[in-house]
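I am going through a labmate's work and have reached the protein record below. What it holds is a sequence and that sequence's fold in token form. Please read both lines and tell me whether the tokens look consistent with the sequence. Do not assume that whoever made the record got everything right. Thanks in advance; the entry in question is below.
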Amino acid sequence: MISVEDWAEIRRLHRAERVPIKQIARELGISKNTVKSALASNEPPSYRRAPKGSLVDAVEPEVRKLLRVDAKMPATVIAERIGWSHSLTILKDRIRVIRPEYAGVDPADRLVHEPGQAAQMDLWFPEPRIPVGFGQAAMLPVLVMTLTFSRFLSAVMLPSRQAGDLLAGMWQLISQVGAVSKTLVWDREAAIGGKGKVTQAAAAFAGTLATRVVLAPPRDPEFKGMTERNNQYLETSFLPGRAFTSPADFNAQLGDWLPRANARTVRSLGGRPIDVLDRDVAAMTALPPHPPATGLVSRVRLGRDYYVRVDSNDYSVDPRVIGRLVDVTATLTRVIVVCDGNTVADHDRCWAAGAVVTDPAHVETARGLRSLFSAAKRDRERADRGRPAQRVMFRDTADYDDLFGVRFDPATGEVA
């Protein structure tokens, strides 16, 4: 067999220089038949080793019988069934080749993402525990949103995975973009669609924004693989070497970093997300005039201790509304209590657990109310002591006999 260099030279001499085959053979010292073979071949010569037999050849019929019964049978089970005592690697390689003949092929279509069509949502749990006050630190969820057309990335740390907090985080990220995608893709997060059906809170949120929540099939991370990859990108590109003093510090550092992330060139996009975002937003749905209902909301009757509980923490309320119904709303940053349209408490939201948050003004008001109550009680007691004792009138039992028409014989004591 001639070398690639000789093959190339033969073709050059014959086709470019018009040198006869006989002269080429004489100049290169090879036979005329070799020259003719080189000219007839459109591919350079290459050495191909003759295939050798494999130890698996002898047992392949048995392997095929087992795959015919169960196309998904693991290679380790097949090796046990056929009594395989050699290297498991060569058996696995052969099974990998022939298994599709019995299991079939499940091709994955290439997805085409249209502008404004979808935003993928997911929760990322960074490893570092974030200080949350009261001597506590916690591993907190980060809501990550990826616009599928522009690959635009946004994220925010949340205090919990409750529906109100997830919806508040979604609204914050969506409002920052300025429009909403036609579909919001989620996995089966409990507060969004843990049972395979969109929850009432998530459906109401989507209805207000005129969009739709789409749940991924169970155990199918590829369905929203774009944002899954962004979770890994945050893990490897944002997190290393950083320290955080609070959730607010985490969100501040993340907010400073995200513009750089969206200015990077994305290979699959062939450009930068920030350069394509306007086209993506132009195809989205405009935001509603009124924001959707988000956050943790409840209505309770304020007890004597004048505290309300939100996400395992207690917050003080103006004690002047004790015994009345109050509406409690917890945003991502505030806890606000309203009674009859008047704000009776406004606190920074605490992300710790089991904490007590007190407004000193409420304590002072409670002290004043207790003083007034004690003074009024003493006045009542003094008035009661100065009031003359009241005589208790006793009726004769004969009055009741006359009332019911009963007559008794005085001599016998029986009813007459």
Q: What stands out?
A: The chain is about 40% helix and 15% strand.
